[in-house]
Amino acid sequence: MKISLTCLMLAFVICLIGCTSYKKIPYFQNIPDSSYVYHNGETIDGVNKESITIKPDDILAIKILLKDGSDALMPQNTINPTPTPIGNNANQSKNIYRVNEAGFIQIPIIGNVEVTNLTLSEIRKKIGDLAMITMKNPIVQVELDNFTITVLGEVNKPGTYTIVNKDKCTIVDVLGLAGDLNIGGKRNNIMLIRDLGNGKKKIGRFNLQSTDIFNSPFYNLQQNDVVYIEPTKFRASAESFQKISFVAGFAAILSVLVSVIALSK
């Protein structure tokens, strides 16, 4: 009985392994595996890596540095965003401003500045031009303090990642931060969930097995995007097998105990 049960379980494992095709694992499979590509490379089309634009409720860290190195701005309306920034600038003091629903921030000395739908570089220039009215050669620094991406599902390091000192991030970048997909991740159907505001969400999908991902309208991520990698059927079957193995093992132990008790009578 023990041999039969072991054989059945072993056969089931082999069957599960056989269901996992190697062809479902590699990325960018439409790139030819040829000597030409090895020596000359393959040129493919793709969207440009784009800077994010600012939205209402975004959190901006702003400094206006003067010639002597001092900051012309005093800390105003300091807040602590939920995600903890990581990197060299995490512990430095910041002048923090939240973008209001109308799309403005209020900066001391300068006043109200409209920033929605602008990139960080455009905001730096806009604030710099306004600052030059009353200051000589100011240097403006602007960072987005809530540039976070959440990665869920079958990756090696799921979690919420804060993108520090950058205004661009792609799906490939964030999967790298999350330690890449594990062997149980479905590579041809990655989901993106994007908050459009007013309770609306937009859902996009990626296929890492094709270079078409570089042409996706969702290739460039935005603040607060959520990326979800669903499990393959093999992964789900493996989880079920673990549960079956536990139940079978428990049943075997229980059977032995019953036999021992019966023999002792």
TrEMBL record:
Keywords: Membrane, Signal, Transmembrane, Transmembrane helix. GO terms for molecular function: polysaccharide transmembrane transporter activity. InterPro entries: Poly_export, Poly_export_N, Soluble_ligand-bd. The chain crosses the membrane at residues 244-263. It comes from the Bacteria. Residues 50-144 form the Polysaccharide export protein N-terminal domain. Residues 149-200 form the Soluble ligand binding domain. This is Uncharacterized protein. It comes from Rhizosphaericola mali. The lineage of its organism: Bacteria, Pseudomonadati, Bacteroidota, Chitinophagia, Chitinophagales.
